[in-house]
Amino acid sequence: MATPETAVPVAPVLTDNQKLRGINADYTERYGFHDAENYLYKAPKGLTRELVAKISEFKSEPQWMRDFRLKALDHFLARPMPTWGSPMLAEVDFDDIHYFVRASERSERSWDDVPEDVKKTFDRLGIPEAERKFLSGVGAQYESEVVYHQVNESLEKQGVIFTDMDTALREHEDLLREYFATIIPPNDNKLASLNSAVWSGGSFVYVPPGVHVEMPLQAYFRINTESMGQFERTLIIADEGSYVHYVEGCTAPTYSSSSLHSAVVELVAKPSARIRYTTVQNWSTNVFNLVTKRAIAETDATVEWVDCNLGSKLTMKYPSVYLMGERAHGEILSIAFAGADQHQDAGGKIVHVAPNTTSNIFAKSISKDGGRGSYRGLLEIAKGAHGSRSKVVCDALLLDEQSRSDTYPTIRIDNDDVNVGHEATVSKVGDDQLFYLMSHGISEEEASKLIVNGFIEPITKELPMEYAVEMNRLIELQMEGSIG
Amino acid sequence: MTTIIDVCPLSELLPGQKRLVRWEDLEIGVFNCAGTVYAIEDRCTHDDGPLVEGEFNEAACTVECPRHGSLFDLTTGKPKTLPAYVPVDTFDVIIEHDTIKLEVE
Fold first, then answer.
1. Does an H or E element contain B9, and which?
2. How many other β-carbons are positioned within 10 Å of the β-carbon of residue A72?
3. A60 in the Ramachandran plot: left (φ > 0), alpha (ψ -120 to 50) or beta?
C-alpha cells in the first residue's frame, strides 16, 4: 500500500507584462444577469428541522422520504466540517443560505408554460435552441426546482425515463427507491448529508435494456437569487447493454455574498451498459461548489466522467467509479481552470473491486492570476481485483508566478497481479516553446493560445461539439490581448 | 480450530435486540431478526466502523454503519450500499438449550 502525497511548488512563468485576461472575463454580460424575484415561496435563511419537514410537505412526499430527510439532517448536524481540502471551506456559512426557493408551480413540458422571466433566462442561455438542435431531452432547474423537462417522444416510446427527481418520486417510486442513496448513503459525508436532508430537483434517468440514446440528455442548473443553496439530486440507471450520455451545465449571477451548490449524483451502469456524464461547471465566483458524484459499473459496463470546472469560488468534487463487475471500465477526464480567488480542488476516484477491470484518470489544471488548482485522486485495487490495469495522469499548467498547483494522488493496491501507472507533470508556458512557435511566424499571443489549447485538447475532444466550441471560446477569451 | 462460545440465553436477546460479544481479539455483533439470530464481525470493511452501534432494521435484517452509512445484510454479511464493497465476516449461530452460541475460529 502506498500513499504518496506531493505538493508541487509554485514556478514563475510569465512576466508582469504577459498577464492574461481572466477566463470568463465576459461572465457578467453572458451569465451574470439576474431576474426579478417573483417567487411562490422563498424560505428564510437558515436550516431547521421544520424547514426540512416543510420541503417534504411541499412536495407531498411519502413518509419514507420525509424520514430519510430528517435522519440525514441529524447526520449533517452531528458531523464536523471536513478539515482537509481547502481552507476556503471554513468560509461556508450554513446559517446564511436560503435552502429552498420555489419559482414555479410545477415542471412544464412546454417552454410556453414556463413563467415568463424564467423562460427569458433560459432563452438567453440558449437552452431551448440547443434542445431543438442537438439534444434528446432537456431539464432546466431554476433555484430549487425543475421548471421544464422534456424528452424526445421516440425515446419515451422505447421506455426511456428522463424526468426531474420530484416527479420520479411520484411516478416511479419503486424504481427510484431501489437505487436511491445506495451509491451515496446519506451519511457518506457531511455535504451528502446536507443534500439528503434538503434535496430538491435534479434528474432521474432510466434507460431500458439495449436502448441507445444517441443524442445527449442535458440538464441546466441556474441560480438566480442571492445567498442561494441549490441541492439537486441526480440518479441515472442504464440497464443492460444500454447507452446514455448526460450533460449538465450551470451558471449564476455574481453577488458579493456566497451561495452554496451541493449536489449528489448517483450512476448505476448495469452489465454491458455505458454511461457518459459530462459536466461543464461555470458557477459565478461567489458559489461554493461541494458535490458528491459516484458510480458503479457492473460486469463489462463502462462509466465515463468528463468533468470541466471553470467557475465557482471553491469546487471540491471527485467523481468516482466503483468497478464492481468483471471487465468493467472506468474513465475520468477532469479539467479545471483556477483564476483569481478561485480554488479548484478536483480529481477523481476509481475503485477496482472485480478482476480484469480497467481504468484511466486524466486530469489537467490551468492556474492563473493567483488561482489554485489541486488534483486529488484515489486509485484503489481490492484484493480480488487481479488482472486489473489502471493509468493515472495529472498535468498542471501554471500561467503566472502567483498561481499554485498541488497534487494529492493516493494509490492503494491490495493485489500484486495488476498493472498501475502514474504520471504527474507541472509545466509552464515557457520561453523556448514561445520562441519556437514565433520563429514560424506566429505572434506571441497566438503561440500562447496554441500551447494552452494543446494542453487541454485531450479533454475538449471528448466534449460534445457545442461544448468544445464553448471551451475554446473561453480559452480564446482568456488569451485575448494578454501578451505585451 | 473451531471453538463454540456462549453468548447469552435466548430470552436475553429478544427480536429486534442486538449485543456486542468479545472473544479473544474479535468483536462480534449478534442480532435477533424476528426470531432468527445472526452474527457478524463488528467492523465495517470500509473504515472499521462499529456496526453494533449503527441502526439495526429488524424487518429488513440489516445494520447501517454509523460512520459512513453502508448498509449490511445480516444474513450474508454483504454490503447493500457503498461505500463498503467487501462483505463482513459472518459466524454460524447455534441455539442449544435456549442458549445462543457462536462458532468462532
1. strand B3-9
2. 24
3. left
Up-side HSE of residue A482: CA atoms within 13 Å toward CB?
A: 25
Report the SS3 class of residue A153.
helix
Q: What is the pLDDT of residues A253-274, one digit of tens each?
A: 999 999 999 999 999 999 999 9
Chain B partners within 8 Å of A181 (Cβ): 81
Establish if A181 touches chain B: CB-CB under 8 angstroms.
Answer: yes
Q: Which three cell numbers stand for residue A185?
A: 448513503
For residue A49, the tally of other CB atoms under 10 A from its CB is 13
Write the CA distances from A207 to A24, A102, A152, A246, A357, integer angstroms.
35, 29, 13, 12, 23
User: What is the radius of gyration, based on Cα positions, of chain B?
Assistant: 13
Is the reported ipTM for this assembly greater than 0.90?
A: yes
Is residue B27 within 8 A of residue B7, CB to CB? The reply is: no
What are the cell numbers at A200? 430538491
Question: Using the beta-carbon criterion (under 8 Å), do B81 and A185 form an inter-chain contact?
Answer: yes
CATH code of the domain containing B16: 2.102.10.10
Under an 8 A CB cutoff, do A186 and B69 touch? yes
Please write the tens of the pLDDT for every residue from A134-187.
889 999 999 999 999 999 999 999 999 999 999 999 999 999 999 999 999 999
**Which segments of A141-237 does DSSP mark as H helices, in order?**
153-157, 165-171, 173-179, 190-198
CB-neighbour burial class of residue A422 (10 A; exposed 0-12, middle 13-18, buried 19+)? middle
Domain that holds residue B74: 3-104
Taking alpha carbons only, the member of A326, A314, A235, A230 closest to residue A277 is A235
Query: In Å, how far is A97's CA from the nearest CA of chain B?
Result: 25
Per the structure, the count of domains in chain B is: 1
Distance (Å, whole) CA A346 – CA A396:
12
Give the pLDDT of residue A484: 28
Q: Determine contact: A194 vs chain B, CB below 8 A.
A: no
Tell me what pLDDT residue A257 has: 96
Q: Residues B3, B101: contact at Cβ < 8 Å?
A: no
Give one word for A14, left, alpha or beta, with left for phi > 0 and alpha for psi -120 to 50. Answer: beta
Instruction: State whether residue A144 is helix, strand or coil.
Output: coil
What does the alpha-carbon distance between residue A322 and residue A184 come to, in Å, rounded to a whole number? 12
Distance from C-alpha of A347 to C-alpha of A305, rounded to nearest angstrom:
10
Q: What is the dihedral of CA A320, A323, A329, A330, to 10 degrees?
A: 10
- Chain centroid to Cα A482, Å, comes to 29
A357-373 burial: b if 16+ Cβ within 10 Å, else e: bbbbbbbbbbbbbebbb
